[in-house]
Amino acid sequence: MTTGTSPQDFAKRLDKTAEDTEALLASLLSDTLLPDEIARPRRVMEAMRYSSLGGGKRLRPFLVVESSTVFGVAREAALLAGAALECIHCYSLIHDDLPAMDNSELRRGRPTLHKKYDDATAILAGDGLLTLAFDIITRDEIHSDPTVRLLLTRALARASGIGGMVGGQMLDLAGEGRFGDREPVDVARLQQMKTGALLRYGCIAGAILGQATTQEYQALDDYGRALGEAFQIADDLLDVEGDAAALGKQTGQDAALGKTTFVTQLGIAGAKQRVSDLLGKADAALSIFGARGDVLRAAARFVAERKN
Amino acid sequence: MTTGTSPQDFAKRLDKTAEDTEALLASLLSDTLLPDEIARPRRVMEAMRYSSLGGGKRLRPFLVVESSTVFGVAREAALLAGAALECIHCYSLIHDDLPAMDNSELRRGRPTLHKKYDDATAILAGDGLLTLAFDIITRDEIHSDPTVRLLLTRALARASGIGGMVGGQMLDLAGEGRFGDREPVDVARLQQMKTGALLRYGCIAGAILGQATTQEYQALDDYGRALGEAFQIADDLLDVEGDAAALGKQTGQDAALGKTTFVTQLGIAGAKQRVSDLLGKADAALSIFGARGDVLRAAARFVAERKN
Predict the structure, then answer these.
(1) Which residues of chain B have pLDDT under 50?
(2) Could you tell me the residue range of the domain that residue B158 belongs to?
(3) Which of A33, A137, A162 is the mutation pick for testing B, counting most B CBs within 10 A?
(4) Contact yes or no for A161 and B128 at CB 8 A
(5) CATH of the domain at A109
(6) Which residue, A97, A113, B183, B248, has most beta carbons within 10 Å?
């Protein structure tokens, strides 16, 4: 199936949303966040900025913006919801990088937060970003109907919590044998929670903001699940076949840890076939939107075929 | 000023709310929280239960319940909001106890969570409780008006975040000289953020739930600030004069760390005088409620005069 969005147009849209998200996060994390009369805990603010600003594809905010565009939602509202989601994503990276968790020293070619600052500051900056997300997602500018903002808020809590991302990270550590014997891993479920839940949230956020019909909501939910799984399989494939320079991190990490991944479960050829099937599912889910789904179709391809 | 609530009545009310909160948290943290089709990350659920169940005075939920009672708010709604606040409180204790933070081994006479489990589980259980709080606080049962739930949610994020509790913890660590030279400490501001913000939230939650007038809201805000400061001064005094057995923890810790506290700033007599002044402020703030403020008046005394 061909998509109506050229790779050039897609790249431009992705870049524009990344730029707008960067500017919005910079403003949300500026000192004006705190009322004047309160002493400013500068160190934690700086640490939050260090981990949230300075790039990245901003894929999750992009999904919020583009799923919102399907319903003609105001861009400013979608960007704000996307920024809240990005705060959750950034906090999860900070906490996952800690010595007690994955013990990572580099992220995007820079020292991880706890290496740049210290563990206490990293824990607090993560807690601060997680909490800030729930401050942002409730704001009046996101939607005039408070019920819509509440739905967005609760869905964000569910995607991020123990039934979503936090739970997925726990299953991942258990599967690595961190708490005794390796626990058996259901890769698809683990990844649905650990990385899938936030990506899927990005896709249903537009349906919530756009007050979609049940059928439209379900379509974006199906699309989001397919995209989330394709994202993770691509990640697992990059760890085996990717270019360390392009990735900005070592490859072969999963094998070194003896991790169960989509590639160990399906093999390389099987994993690639599964990605292809998932792209078909994503396209099928979007069919009810016709041409309005073109950018999301391109997004699924981008996620599946990315080189970093 | 005499209070219309006898110490026996007060103790009964406090115990009853603690029991109800315990039962509610146990149900919120039961396995039914996760949909059946999702693998249960049992370890993190157990860790969340270990740290949230099994006692404590549940002072913060009590404040939510009693400030709500002033306006005739349904007890079930207040208990739910109180449980959300308690989740935030419990998460903060878990993260504060970590080796990278205060490195505490005991809490309420039991091993702290990271000693009972491990650091990774403690970080995730804290993240899980923090996120769960925002799931709970948005629930329909809390109030029929979504605007009220949104106000409660945003106020909770503000009280917990870098302008509140998280920021206060950072200032506290900086004041201990954890990041180089000891930074100068404004004790009143630090404690307004670190411990005061959540206690104050407990007091204004009733005003939000009860859709109070601006004047009534302000009264509970003033009361909450006075109570929060009195709580902390009492804490500082207990560290100097308290009974380690009754407290269930070592005394003299602040002096050992060379911390700036209300006692080092005001002296023992000055600190006691300040508590007395704050109780006067709390009473004055409650005067517009007449007899409806009796239990809150007793709560301020309880907080100021507690032995543990």
Answers:
(1) 1, 36-37
(2) 7-305
(3) A162
(4) yes
(5) 1.10.600.10
(6) A113
